[in-house]
Amino acid sequence: MCDNILKEKIMEEQDFIESDVRLFYEILSHENESEIRLINYGTYPIIKIIKGIEKFVQVAREYSGKRNIYTVLRERKPGLKTSAKAEDIIKLQIIVLDFDPIREKDYPSNDIELKNAIAIATEIAESFNSMGFLKPHIATTGNGAALYFKIEPIQITDDNRYYITELLQTFEQYVRSEYKDLFKKYNVRLDSMYDLPRIGRVIGTKNIKGEEIENRPHRISRFLYVNTPLKNDPELFNFIKSLSKKSYPILEKTSRTSQSNKVQSSLLNEPEQFTGRPVYPMQPIPYFGERLEGNWIWEYKVDGFRLQIIKNGGKIYYFGRRLEKNPDWTDKLNRIIPNESFKNLPDKSMLDAELYSTLGRRGVPSVFANNGKADPIVYVFDVIFYNGRSLEDLPLSKRKEILNSVKFLPPIFILPYFKVENLEEHLKEALSKGFEGIVIKELSSKYEIGSDAPIATQWWRKIKPK
Length: 466
What we know:
The chain has helices at about 1-10, 20-30, 55-65, 110-130, 160-180, 180-185, 235-245, 260-265, 330-335, 365-370, 395-405, 425-430, and strands spanning about 35-40, 45-50, 70, 75, 90-100, 135-140, 145-155, 190, 200, 205, 220, 220-225, 280-285, 295-300, 305-310, 315-320, 350-355, 375-385, 390, 410-415, 415-420, 435-440, 455-465. By secondary structure, it is α+β, with helices and mostly antiparallel strands. The two termini are about 35 Å apart.
């Protein structure tokens, strides 16, 4: 099936497929205004608040091939004139699984990677169908694939908002665990889509994300399978509820502060215990120009290799981000980074950091080589465990305070952070100093540890030039 799809569908070059855009709008079933975000990475997005299918198609046609076109997937409150936040989502009517090939950073997928993403999406769709659920709609997003489950609409209120978010997150964790062999076989990851105001690509428009090079072209997104006539699955949400440890739909009413938002997101997960083993780290998502609420800081975005540093039993251990590939760099880095650099760090501690080099990103592989030409530079920006205690439920402000109390020795440095005032100026400053961009973070955010994959969070956002 996948070979035929690639031959008949993907290799066909178009910039816009009106029928697929219309179908996508019908699947979304928006009753109120739709929020379209027109994005070129490194520039501020254009945000369109529109009503009705004809206007939706018009905007998609105008910008397809010029900007990446996304829309907020879930139902927004009526009359909202700004970008939706979690509290602005009033209905859950669609659940999306988004499959992204693991590939070279900042480039589109090649044909094999795309074929693998379509293959795993198709197999998982068939699996859900065999379990008695309606087969989800299948689309290629241009670089990967996605499944769209239409469900009986669930009204979202202040009493169940955080619980429903947790249910969606638990469902994604279930998929990662249940189909982990397929994810490994096809070298594909499942992106996080559980955030209520999450955006998704408008199917039928061209994906121009990443630098287009030979064998890695920009492609049109399109539907590969549509389960017609369009129906809502009456049982999928009940199945998702069964995965949860909590009953539905009662939740105690919570205060509307950003701090309570983060605390509520730990309802289904107990704090991690220190084991000395690496964890799946938290990671940022792109910033789309939304209004920032809360207390935000910015940091330089270092273009290096993500690094976890663990001190256990007086020894230092180093691990990369993609744990499915067993990136144990302990022996190599212990040869060139003295343990003395961590003498003031308590035992049973874990740091989140970026490995860089005196020759920049291109010099990082040389750091691992015997007699390499580059020396390591390690920028530490967060602490996950400290003296055996999990810090994941502490706000970022407190974790920064703990981190900055430790005196490291070169080549270990604490990455500085600054209050957000003018993002354009902050980005210019970072680029002028040789960094690839900036990362902005909300100071009350907790650290979210993934169970089967890194967790991408709206509380960390990355901004890079195009």
